[in-house]
Design goal:
The protein is an alpha+beta fold. It contains two helices and six strands; from the N terminus they run H-E-E-E-E-E-H-E. Strands 1-2-3-4-5-6 form a six-stranded mixed β-sheet, with helices on one face. The longest helix has 13 residues.
Length: about 80
């Protein structure tokens, strides 16, 4: 079974992957059906759906935190 960390690495490498409620088409990164990341123009952008940003849910907050930790040269964006 694929892990969340592998989904985020796949997103960073431009490859599709899915693990439960975290998935990517290789360009956009989703927590449930909420887009939390995008790299369509070559920049790694992650939207801050955490308690210090625009809180959505605990699981999404964990997905965002993991993506920020695992993605080099990331831009944390305000939704």
């Amino acid at each position: 079974m694929i892990r969340n960390e592998q989904v985020i690495r796949a997103w960073y490498c431009g490859e599709p992957a899915a693990a439960g409620n975290l998935f990517t088409d290789g360009v956009k990164l989703y927590s449930y059906r909420l887009k939390i990341g995008d790299r369509s123009d070559g920049l790694n952008r992650i939207w801050d759906y955490t308690a210090s940003g625009c809180y959505y849910s605990q699981t999404t907050s964990c997905h965002v935190g993991l993506a920020v930790r695992l993605t080099p040269q990331v831009f944390l964006m305000t939704p």
